[in-house]
Request: fold
Amino acid sequence: KQEVTQIPAALSVPEGENLVLNCSFTDSAIYNLQWFRQDPGKGLTSLLLIQSSQREQTSGRLNASLDKSSGRSTLYIAASQPGDSATYLCAVGSGGGADGLTFGKGTHLIIQP
Amino acid sequence: DTGVSQDPRHKITKRGQNVTFRCDPISEHNRLYWYRQTLGQGPEFLTYFQNEAQLEKSRLLSDRFSAERPKGSFSTLEIQRTEQGDSAMYLCASSLGWAGGVGEQYFGPGTRLTVT
Reply:
Protein backbone atom coordinates (compact mmCIF):
# COMPACT_ATOMS: atom_id res chain seq x y z
CA LYS A 1 0.00 0.00 0.00
CA GLN A 2 1.34 3.42 -1.01
CA GLU A 3 2.16 5.78 1.86
CA VAL A 4 3.10 9.44 1.47
CA THR A 5 4.93 11.43 4.15
CA GLN A 6 5.49 15.17 4.17
CA ILE A 7 8.13 16.93 6.21
CA PRO A 8 7.95 19.33 7.97
CA ALA A 9 4.35 19.26 9.18
CA ALA A 10 4.49 23.01 9.76
CA LEU A 11 6.86 25.80 8.80
CA SER A 12 6.97 29.51 9.57
CA VAL A 13 9.47 31.75 7.79
CA PRO A 14 9.93 35.48 7.18
CA GLU A 15 8.84 36.94 3.88
CA GLY A 16 11.43 36.78 1.11
CA GLU A 17 13.10 33.52 2.13
CA ASN A 18 13.51 30.57 -0.21
CA LEU A 19 12.17 27.33 1.20
CA VAL A 20 11.92 23.62 0.47
CA LEU A 21 9.06 21.27 1.27
CA ASN A 22 9.73 17.54 1.26
CA CYS A 23 7.61 14.58 0.23
CA SER A 24 8.49 10.89 0.33
CA PHE A 25 6.56 7.86 -0.87
CA THR A 26 7.02 4.16 -0.22
CA ASP A 27 6.22 2.58 -3.60
CA SER A 28 8.28 3.92 -6.50
CA ALA A 29 5.88 2.45 -9.11
CA ILE A 30 4.06 5.74 -9.63
CA TYR A 31 2.72 7.25 -12.83
CA ASN A 32 2.76 10.87 -11.67
CA LEU A 33 3.09 13.20 -8.69
CA GLN A 34 1.15 16.39 -8.04
CA TRP A 35 1.67 19.26 -5.64
CA PHE A 36 -1.40 21.19 -4.43
CA ARG A 37 -2.09 24.10 -2.15
CA GLN A 38 -5.15 24.28 0.06
CA ASP A 39 -6.42 27.41 1.79
CA PRO A 40 -8.47 26.95 4.99
CA GLY A 41 -11.91 25.50 4.29
CA LYS A 42 -11.32 25.45 0.55
CA GLY A 43 -10.73 22.91 -2.19
CA LEU A 44 -7.34 22.04 -3.66
CA THR A 45 -5.49 24.13 -6.24
CA SER A 46 -3.09 22.21 -8.46
CA LEU A 47 0.39 23.73 -8.53
CA LEU A 48 2.55 21.31 -10.50
CA LEU A 49 2.25 17.89 -12.09
CA ILE A 50 5.32 15.73 -12.72
CA GLN A 51 4.87 12.65 -14.89
CA SER A 52 6.92 9.60 -13.89
CA SER A 53 9.28 10.09 -16.86
CA GLN A 54 10.11 13.67 -15.82
CA ARG A 55 12.60 14.93 -13.25
CA GLU A 56 11.23 18.40 -12.55
CA GLN A 57 8.62 21.00 -13.40
CA THR A 58 8.65 24.76 -12.93
CA SER A 59 5.91 27.34 -12.68
CA GLY A 60 6.83 30.90 -11.76
CA ARG A 61 8.49 30.87 -8.33
CA LEU A 62 7.77 27.18 -7.84
CA ASN A 63 9.98 24.27 -8.81
CA ALA A 64 9.18 20.64 -8.10
CA SER A 65 11.61 17.77 -8.51
CA LEU A 66 11.02 14.03 -8.59
CA ASP A 67 13.45 11.21 -7.79
CA LYS A 68 11.32 8.16 -8.38
CA SER A 69 14.01 5.62 -7.50
CA SER A 70 14.51 7.07 -4.02
CA GLY A 71 10.81 7.83 -3.53
CA ARG A 72 11.25 11.57 -3.01
CA SER A 73 9.98 14.87 -4.29
CA THR A 74 10.72 18.43 -3.24
CA LEU A 75 8.81 21.65 -3.78
CA TYR A 76 11.02 24.72 -3.88
CA ILE A 77 9.40 28.12 -3.33
CA ALA A 78 11.55 31.13 -4.19
CA ALA A 79 11.20 34.56 -2.64
CA SER A 80 8.26 33.61 -0.42
CA GLN A 81 5.35 36.02 0.02
CA PRO A 82 2.58 36.25 2.66
CA GLY A 83 0.12 35.09 -0.03
CA ASP A 84 1.97 31.78 -0.17
CA SER A 85 0.65 30.94 3.30
CA ALA A 86 -1.43 27.77 2.93
CA THR A 87 -1.23 24.01 3.39
CA TYR A 88 0.81 22.31 0.68
CA LEU A 89 -0.14 18.75 -0.22
CA CYS A 90 1.88 16.17 -2.13
CA ALA A 91 -0.01 13.38 -3.91
CA VAL A 92 1.16 10.41 -5.93
CA GLY A 93 -0.73 8.49 -8.56
CA SER A 94 -0.16 4.76 -8.93
CA GLY A 95 -2.00 1.62 -10.04
CA GLY A 96 -2.31 2.53 -13.69
CA GLY A 97 -4.37 5.62 -12.92
CA ALA A 98 -7.26 3.69 -11.45
CA ASP A 99 -6.49 4.08 -7.77
CA GLY A 100 -6.79 7.81 -7.49
CA LEU A 101 -4.14 9.91 -5.77
CA THR A 102 -2.58 9.04 -2.43
CA PHE A 103 -1.99 12.18 -0.38
CA GLY A 104 0.33 13.15 2.41
CA LYS A 105 -0.98 15.07 5.42
CA GLY A 106 0.48 18.30 4.13
CA THR A 107 2.87 21.03 5.27
CA HIS A 108 1.20 24.02 6.90
CA LEU A 109 3.20 27.04 5.74
CA ILE A 110 3.08 30.50 7.27
CA ILE A 111 4.98 33.38 5.67
CA GLN A 112 5.49 36.21 8.15
CA PRO A 113 5.19 39.74 6.66
CA ASP B 1 -15.96 26.08 -18.56
CA THR B 2 -14.54 27.48 -15.36
CA GLY B 3 -13.63 24.28 -13.56
CA VAL B 4 -15.09 21.57 -11.39
CA SER B 5 -18.23 22.55 -9.49
CA GLN B 6 -19.90 20.86 -6.54
CA ASP B 7 -23.31 21.29 -4.98
CA PRO B 8 -24.22 21.90 -2.24
CA ARG B 9 -21.20 23.58 -0.63
CA HIS B 10 -22.46 22.82 2.86
CA LYS B 11 -24.90 20.22 4.18
CA ILE B 12 -26.08 19.72 7.75
CA THR B 13 -28.12 16.60 8.36
CA LYS B 14 -29.32 14.50 11.24
CA ARG B 15 -27.94 11.05 11.88
CA GLY B 16 -29.83 8.43 9.92
CA GLN B 17 -30.85 10.70 7.06
CA ASN B 18 -29.77 10.20 3.44
CA VAL B 19 -27.78 12.87 1.60
CA THR B 20 -26.77 13.30 -2.04
CA PHE B 21 -23.99 15.43 -3.46
CA ARG B 22 -23.44 16.46 -7.06
CA CYS B 23 -20.23 17.08 -9.00
CA ASP B 24 -19.92 18.64 -12.45
CA PRO B 25 -16.47 17.97 -13.91
CA ILE B 26 -14.57 19.94 -16.54
CA SER B 27 -16.55 19.11 -19.67
CA GLU B 28 -13.84 17.43 -21.74
CA HIS B 29 -12.52 15.29 -18.86
CA ASN B 30 -13.29 11.58 -19.07
CA ARG B 31 -12.16 10.68 -15.53
CA LEU B 32 -13.92 11.69 -12.33
CA TYR B 33 -12.81 10.98 -8.76
CA TRP B 34 -14.39 11.32 -5.32
CA TYR B 35 -12.30 11.89 -2.19
CA ARG B 36 -13.05 12.50 1.49
CA GLN B 37 -11.03 14.80 3.73
CA THR B 38 -11.21 15.12 7.51
CA LEU B 39 -9.62 17.87 9.57
CA GLY B 40 -5.83 17.83 9.55
CA GLN B 41 -5.59 15.00 7.03
CA GLY B 42 -4.95 14.78 3.32
CA PRO B 43 -7.82 13.71 1.06
CA GLU B 44 -8.54 9.96 0.87
CA PHE B 45 -9.61 8.32 -2.36
CA LEU B 46 -13.15 6.91 -2.42
CA THR B 47 -14.04 5.98 -5.99
CA TYR B 48 -13.27 6.68 -9.64
CA PHE B 49 -15.12 6.75 -12.96
CA GLN B 50 -13.87 6.57 -16.51
CA ASN B 51 -16.71 7.97 -18.56
CA GLU B 52 -19.82 6.32 -17.05
CA ALA B 53 -18.06 3.21 -15.73
CA GLN B 54 -17.15 3.02 -12.04
CA LEU B 55 -13.77 1.28 -12.16
CA GLU B 56 -12.44 1.45 -8.62
CA LYS B 57 -13.84 1.64 -5.12
CA SER B 58 -11.83 2.12 -1.96
CA ARG B 59 -12.49 -0.06 1.06
CA LEU B 60 -13.44 3.23 2.75
CA LEU B 61 -16.59 3.20 0.63
CA SER B 62 -18.99 1.19 2.77
CA ASP B 63 -22.27 -0.24 1.50
CA ARG B 64 -24.01 2.95 2.65
CA PHE B 65 -22.16 4.90 -0.05
CA SER B 66 -23.10 4.80 -3.72
CA ALA B 67 -21.88 6.84 -6.65
CA GLU B 68 -23.12 7.21 -10.19
CA ARG B 69 -22.04 9.02 -13.33
CA PRO B 70 -24.89 8.69 -15.80
CA LYS B 71 -23.92 9.35 -19.42
CA GLY B 72 -20.37 10.10 -18.34
CA SER B 73 -21.17 13.68 -17.40
CA PHE B 74 -21.99 14.84 -13.84
CA SER B 75 -21.69 12.48 -10.89
CA THR B 76 -23.64 12.00 -7.67
CA LEU B 77 -22.46 10.57 -4.36
CA GLU B 78 -25.18 9.34 -2.02
CA ILE B 79 -24.72 8.44 1.63
CA GLN B 80 -27.53 6.46 3.20
CA ARG B 81 -28.28 6.33 6.93
CA THR B 82 -25.62 8.92 7.74
CA GLU B 83 -23.45 8.51 10.83
CA GLN B 84 -21.48 11.13 12.77
CA GLY B 85 -18.29 9.60 11.41
CA ASP B 86 -19.38 10.62 7.91
CA SER B 87 -18.81 14.28 8.80
CA ALA B 88 -16.07 15.44 6.43
CA MET B 89 -15.33 17.47 3.32
CA TYR B 90 -16.26 15.53 0.18
CA LEU B 91 -14.11 16.52 -2.79
CA CYS B 92 -14.60 15.78 -6.46
CA ALA B 93 -11.85 15.94 -9.08
CA SER B 94 -11.63 15.36 -12.82
CA SER B 95 -8.86 14.71 -15.30
CA LEU B 96 -8.10 13.56 -18.79
CA GLY B 97 -6.94 9.96 -19.14
CA TRP B 98 -5.50 8.08 -22.09
CA ALA B 99 -3.96 4.68 -22.76
CA GLY B 100 -0.98 4.42 -20.46
CA GLY B 101 -1.34 7.77 -18.76
CA VAL B 102 -3.40 10.29 -16.87
CA GLY B 103 -3.23 14.07 -16.64
CA GLU B 104 -3.52 16.62 -13.92
CA GLN B 105 -6.41 16.28 -11.49
CA TYR B 106 -8.48 19.42 -10.95
CA PHE B 107 -10.51 19.65 -7.77
CA GLY B 108 -13.82 21.26 -6.99
CA PRO B 109 -14.48 23.43 -3.90
CA GLY B 110 -15.89 20.50 -1.95
CA THR B 111 -19.08 19.79 -0.02
CA ARG B 112 -18.75 20.04 3.74
CA LEU B 113 -21.03 17.54 5.47
CA THR B 114 -21.93 17.84 9.13
CA VAL B 115 -23.93 15.02 10.69
CA THR B 116 -25.56 15.96 14.02
User: Anything to note?
Assistant: Chain A has a mean pLDDT of 94.
